[in-house]
Amino acid sequence: GENVEQHPSTLSVQEGDSAVIKCTYSDSASNYFPWYKQELGKRPQLIIDIRSNVGEKKDQRIAVTLNKTAKHFSLHITETQPEDSAVYFCAATRTYSSASKIIFGSGTRLSIRP
Amino acid sequence: NAGVTQTPKFQVLKTGQSMTLQCAQDMNHNSMYWYRQDPGMGLRLIYYSASEGTTDKGEVPNGYNVSRLNKREFSLRLESAAPSQTSVYFCASSEAGGQREQYFGPGTRLTVT
Fold first, then answer.
1. Is residue B48 a contact partner of residue B31, using CB atoms and an 8 Å limit?
2. Which of A79, A85, A91, B104 is the most exposed place for a label (fewest CB within 10 A)?
């Protein structure tokens, strides 16, 4: 079946440095790639997304890149801050019957060192 | 506007017991979803409902049933709970169509002993 692989599973960076999380997906029909942030004990929340007709998208300190040929997409966080510490999930989405059926990666626990 | 709400927040069951997890959304979304989250495994889709009156299996449907009661409510039922169903359960909703953000509820932490 479809799957999404996410690396690394844990990542520790110095405050102010950049963090990069990478994902690969198997379903070539996937056309929407959201990234969710989940703080400890809380619900996942969307931070950025990218559609298959776009190669890159940026929102302040966060950017996502997509390579459809290689089935790779990545999250880049620049100038990291303590509040960036959380678990980040990538996902690949395909549309079935008008619903978005998402396959999530296994998550990356990002820790920001002061 | 409460968004997506779930009840209960916590539940402990004995093996073989049954229970229903409730989910409701007030955003007029057509699509609703049930996920389970286990440590190190991300979120896995159990069932989803593209619109009122329809439900479909996700990645891990075995041991669960769902009911889309109306546009607002989507419930998840465990008929005979097993320890392997110990997990955090999240309900989510989205607008109709693909490429839509999913809004998650606060989750239900379920322990089966």
1. yes
2. A79
Amino acid in position A28: S
Amino acid at A85: S
Interface check for A109 against chain B (CB to CB < 8 A): the answer is no
Q: How far is CA B100 from CA A51, A80, A93, in A?
A: 10, 27, 9
Residues 6+ apart with CB under 8 A from A60: none
Parallel, antiparallel or unpaired: strands A108-113 and A10-14: parallel
Q: Three-class SS of residue B84? A: helix
Q: What is the pLDDT of residues A16-42, one digit of tens each?
A: 999 999 999 999 989 899 999 999 999
Phi, psi torsion values for B88, nearest 5 degrees? -105, 130
Q: Is A1 touching B (CB cutoff 8 A)? A: yes
CA separation for the pair A19, B112 (Å, rounded): 37
Give the C-alpha separation, B91 to B46, whole Å.
10
B45-81 tens-digit pLDDT:
999 998 888 999 988 999 999 999 899 999 999 999 9
For residue A15, count other CB atoms closer than 10 A to its CB. 13
Q: How far apart are CA A29 and CA A6, in angstroms?
A: 19
| CA-based nearest distance A71→chain B, Å | 17
The CB density around residue B51, as the number of other CB atoms within 10 Å, is: 16
Residues B85, B14: Cα–Cα separation, whole Å: 11
